[in-house]
């Protein structure tokens, strides 16, 4: 049984209950959700690409322009710090990766050539464990000799290794990583009153 959808629903319910308990029964605020592309710890700001998916259990990080929020002043209202990344979508059927390009403030679709791919890879799979450290490997993994990139998507349960043209292989590593998905409660535009890192607190599959 897929437990992810119930966990997401439960997480959202708990999130809303927490907001109501903390901020009382006054005017209800709003909830925003998206994937983090930038996090500034010093300025306490986070920038996200909003999720436009209407169907529960699916995601579509495609809403432009990106939105920046001031984070809550109290650390207790924030939870785990978010990890940014630029990968919005991994399409293994079309062999494409969609990334956000800050300089263009737009998305780019990169076609890739599959070298190896495994489906239905659980997070406990030995292929994800470093044999020397016995810890989970940190993805993406780059092989400069073979010019390959290896990604693991927890959401899709896919471990894939592929090649891209040289100009894309030279991009910074974080470009290929998927940022954490977060949920933000706010009443005033651009100012988060409560911040939830779904990826790190909701057993969410990215």
> How confident overall, as mean pLDDT?
86
Q: State the domain count.
A: 2
Number of separate strands: 12
Q: For this structure, what is the CATH homologous superfamily of the largest domain? A: Copper binding periplasmic protein CusF
Rounded radius of gyration (Å) = 18 Å
Helix content: 10-25%
CATH architecture of the largest domain: Beta Barrel
Termini gap: 18 Å
The chain-level structural class is mainly beta
State the order of secondary-structure elements, H for helix, E for strand.
Answer: HEEEEEEEEEEHEEH
Strand order of the largest sheet: 3-2-1-11-12
Largest sheet, in brief, is:
5 strands, antiparallel
So how many helices?
A: 3
Overall 3D shape: globular
CATH topology of the largest domain: OB fold (Dihydrolipoamide Acetyltransferase, E2P)
Q: Which regions contain 5 or more consecutive residues with pLDDT less than 50? A: 1-10, 20-25
Fraction of residues in β-strands: 35-45%
CATH class of the largest domain: Mainly Beta
Secondary-structure blueprint of this entry?
Blueprint: H1 4-23, E1 30-40, E2 45-51, E3 61-70, E4 87-91, E5 96-101, E6 106-111, E7 113-118, E8 141-143, E9 148-153, E10 158-163, H2 166-169, E11 181-188, E12 191-197, H3 198-201
Antiparallel strand pairs: 1-2, 1-11, 2-3, 4-5, 5-6, 7-10, 8-9, 9-10, 11-12
Can you describe this structure?
This protein is mostly beta strands and 206 residues long. The protein folds into 2 domains: 4-84 and 179-201, OB fold (Dihydrolipoamide Acetyltransferase, E2P) (Beta Barrel), CATH 2.40.50; 107-176, no CATH class. The protein contains 3 helices and 12 strands. The strands form 3 sheets. The protein has a 5-stranded antiparallel beta sheet. The two termini are 18 Å apart.
